[in-house]
Amino acid sequence: MRLKQAKQVSKSRELGILLNSTLMQRRIVYSCLGVLNPIVPHLKDFSYTEVQEWIKDNGREAHSLLIYNIDIKEFASVWGIGGRSIYEKLTNSIGYDPKIGSSPEIMKMCFKYIGNNGDLEFINVVSKVIINKDSSSIQIKLTSDILPYLINLTSYISIPLEATVGFKCNYSFTMLEYLLARYSQRSTYPIIQLKLNTLQIALGTTHVKSYESWGMFKRSVLDKIDRDFSKINGGGYDIKFEPIYEKAKMGRPKVESVQIHFNDVGFKKFLATKAAQKQGLDSAKNASSEAQQALKHYELEQQKQRDIKTSQEEFGF
Mean pLDDT for the chain? Predict the structure, then answer.
């Protein structure tokens, strides 16, 4: 599959956040997962261990499941990366310093995973990357450890690739994954309230000491996520973070928790169109139309809330 034809990124719900990644590295991984075929019939119902054994015993066939080639011009077009320095940007994103001679930074990317017995694991994603100027392509080789969490999944997250291509903040990917992992078929997405530290852990920001300050965390992380979500093509992914302050008897109250208000109409539209396409083009059009009506209804409700707020401010409420 070509990257420009990719519609979604799928991964096991068991996988946690992607650690040690830059924005460009995240784009490389998402591109790879976007073109990966998540259905491998002859490995259906295989356990993690059985998939690993099959990979060891079937080198050439396993090779085709682990290696993906992505056209660089297509990569730049899909992700909206301009300028003539695309090769330099990609080379820098790999993070290899010949002076140090250590493994490239991209090899350190890993998914956090908590096993059924509570053991904490870190699963590396990429084992090899080649930027080939002659063929103008990126060749990515996944690790055999990550493959079982990407194919033949019974419980997984589907992330619309189109929703992420405009993201300028790496944490926006993590926030969207977190929200969609908790998605259910409801009329509206429930308001989520998280302890501030819990939200920081979920987004993977605890290693940045300056983010311990609510003001810095809001400006450098949450405001950027808000901006990215508001600009998603087609709309319907708006998000709002509302701080909940502790009841302090003395001094300035601290932010204790954060309420997350998420509009999932855009995701509903994606799922409806995806499901309807399996039934035929006419059904897809109907599903898309219904989703558009839902989005219009949401926008009208949002406008009503803004009008009410404006009226209250005018009359001093």
Answer: 84
pTM as predicted? 0.83
**The 126-132 sheet, strands edge to edge:** 67-71, 137-142, 126-132
- Give residue-wise pLDDT tens across range 93-139: 887 665 655 567 888 899 988 877 778 899 999 999 888 888 889 99
Q: Does residue 289 lie in a domain region? A: yes
The 3-state DSSP class for residue 21 equals: coil
Q: How many domains does the chain have?
A: 3
Residues 108 and 72 reside in one and the same domain: yes
Report CA-CA distances (Å) from 78 to 5, 166, 183, 266, 273.
Answer: 10, 9, 26, 19, 21
Q: Could you tell me the sign of the dihedral formed by the alpha carbons of 156, 157, 162, 164, in that order?
A: negative
SS3 state at 19:
strand
The per-residue pLDDT for 130 is 87
Q: Would you give the end-to-end CA distance of the chain in angstroms?
A: 57
Count of residues in the chain = 317
CA distance 66 to 58: 12
Q: 24 and 153: one domain?
A: yes
137-142 vs 67-71, strand pairing mode? antiparallel
Q: Which domain holds residue 52?
A: 3-162
